[in-house]
């Protein structure tokens, strides 16, 4: 028996980091690559990413956003056009310096992000107001040198993501795009992954380098740390001017365009693992589960098997006709108990158990993964399984919302803030809006302003650090 066949050996509460790594590896979502900081996605892990990608593509397409492709190599001379932006990535950049044995001259960066490359192309493609808006999304990888504190899906040197880049003739139209994309992100994460998020803006200190402002969605993880789930940036004309992304307006006057960029990564999969998993392993929301229902036959003889399988196949066909993703575990060499544990480790939302006694009773046994509940339904009630999967999806979100609320604290005294921040959580605290206070809080507690929620403007309190009049009530937390 290999190590990956052994179940989870630590509890989620006792050693969260080790628990998380074991779930990723033993549920066969990913594995470590031979190069430090890189991982290999296995089919189940990639299937979850494909599910998210398909949902985003459908929503993007309705907004007039189409997919394109960008190469991974970016000339250093091109990056120099927007030095302030690229300086933020410099310590993390991988460089290509040779072609075979020959030096190539101008170094090539392995894409940390694609603004400079995309906007160089946009400046060629856009001439007139008739070419706008231009909305393109790119599914690709990005590379950033995360060598020390790596963790699968959360912090790796190469990661899968999508990055959208739009160009507009009108400022207000671009700003509307920023918010609409953030709303797509929020709805998808909550509806598909059953993870609640808080949306709002980043502080000036924490915004994306090169943006006028950054909007974000943040979630709190079970260990009390915050995780940035996605961002949408209003770039203004900060890139269109150096990259000459401009157009002739209806009066034939040349104007610089207004731009946005936005993205999510496979970090979403890491969040899903952390939020829903338990001491048995992975717990998958039905909408993204590669297998939604697994059928486990229970028999001790060929005669019993011959009785069970005709009905089992009939049930499988019924479910597949409803577009439910079904798998029959017909491995003869394994016991039913082993199979139950195996599928629980892999997080399959619903298990069907069927044996000779069930055939006699004209029923099947259903085992729900997320709460371990077992129920029996008749052969004539198979259509209920679609509804049960929908209920599981909704229940998982509601449970996650309750846990997030329990992990969110309103706090007004800095001494209390410092004493409690080590235990983790979202801290709602008044803030005067000054970067100096934000930096001091970070220096003294390790907590950032993760998000300034929309509608959190508040002048009724006193800044938690300097005690001056507050302007907003951001969420402070330590993060991944």
From TrEMBL:
It is found in: Cytoplasm. GO terms for molecular function: ATP binding; proline-tRNA ligase activity. CDD domains: ProRS_anticodon_zinc (cd00862), ProRS_core_arch_euk (cd00778). SUPFAM superfamilies: C-terminal domain of ProRS (SSF64586), Class II aaRS ABD-related (SSF52954), Class II aaRS and biotin synthetases (SSF55681). Its main location: cytoplasm. GO terms for cellular component: aminoacyl-tRNA synthetase multienzyme complex; cytoplasm. The keyword ATP-binding applies. Residues 5-285 form the Aminoacyl-transfer RNA synthetases class-II family profile domain. It is an enzyme of class 6 (ligase). Homodimer. Belongs to the class-II aminoacyl-tRNA synthetase family. ProS type 3 subfamily. Consists of three domains: the N-terminal catalytic domain, the anticodon-binding domain and the C-terminal extension. This is Proline--tRNA ligase. The lineage of its organism: Archaea, Nitrososphaerota, Nitrososphaeria, Nitrosopumilales, Nitrosopumilaceae.
């Amino acid at each position: 028996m290999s190590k990956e066949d052994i179940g989870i050996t630590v509890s989620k509460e006792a050693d969260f980091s080790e628990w998380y790594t074991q779930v990723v590896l033993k549920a066969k979502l990913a594995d470590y690559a031979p190069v430090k900081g890189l991982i290999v996605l296995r089919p189940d892990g990639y299937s979850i990413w494909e599910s998210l990608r398909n949902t985003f593509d459908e929503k993007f397409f309705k907004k007039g956003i189409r997919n394109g492709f960008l190469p991974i190599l970016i000339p250093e001379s091109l990056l120099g056009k927007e030095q302030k932006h690229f300086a933020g990535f410099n310590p993390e950049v991988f460089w290509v310096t040779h072609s075979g044995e020959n030096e190539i001259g101008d170094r090539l960066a392995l894409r940390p992000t694609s603004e400079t490359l995309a906007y160089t192309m946009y400046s060629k493609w856009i001439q007139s107001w008739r070419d706008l808006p231009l909305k393109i999304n790119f599914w690709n990888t990005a590379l950033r040198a995360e060598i020390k504190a790596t963790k699968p899906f959360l912090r790796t040197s190469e990661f899968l993501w999508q990055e959208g880049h739009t160009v507009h003739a009108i400022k207000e139209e671009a700003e509307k795009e920023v918010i609409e994309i953030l709303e797509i992100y929020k709805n998808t994460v909550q509806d598909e992954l059953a993870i609640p998020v808080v949306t709002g803006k980043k502080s000036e200190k924490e915004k994306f380098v090169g943006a006028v402002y950054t909007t974000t969605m943040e979630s709190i993880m079970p260990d009390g740390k915050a995780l940035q789930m996605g961002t949408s940036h209003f770039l203004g004309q900060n890139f269109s001017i150096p990259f000459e992304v401009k157009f002739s307006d209806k009066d034939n006057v040349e104007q610089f365009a207004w731009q946005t960029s936005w993205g999510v990564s496979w970090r979403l999969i890491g969040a899903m693992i952390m939020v829903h998993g338990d001491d048995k392993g992975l717990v998958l929301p039905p909408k993204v589960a590669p297998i939604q229902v697994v059928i486990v036959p229970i028999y001790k003889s060929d005669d019993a098997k011959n009785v069970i399988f005709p009905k089992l196949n009939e049930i499988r066909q019924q479910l597949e006709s409803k577009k439910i993703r079904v798998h029959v575990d017909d491995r003869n060499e394994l016991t039913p108990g082993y199979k139950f544990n195996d599928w629980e480790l892999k997080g399959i939302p619903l298990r069907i158990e069927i044996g000779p006694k069930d055939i006699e009773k004209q029923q099947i046994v259903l085992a729900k993964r997320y709460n371990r509940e077992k129920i029996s339904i008749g052969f004539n009630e198979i259509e209920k399984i679609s509804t049960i999967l929908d209920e599981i999806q909704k229940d998982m979100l509601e449970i996650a919302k309750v846990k997030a609320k329990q992990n969110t604290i309103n706090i007004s005294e800095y001494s209390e803030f410092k004493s409690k921040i080590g235990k983790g959580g979202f801290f709602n605290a008044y803030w005067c809006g000054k970067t100096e206070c934000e930096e001091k809080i970070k220096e003294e507690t390790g907590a950032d302003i993760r998000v300034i929620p929309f509608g959190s403007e508040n002048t009724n309190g006193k800044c938690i650090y300097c005690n001056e009049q507050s302007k907003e009530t951001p969420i402070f937390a330590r993060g991944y």
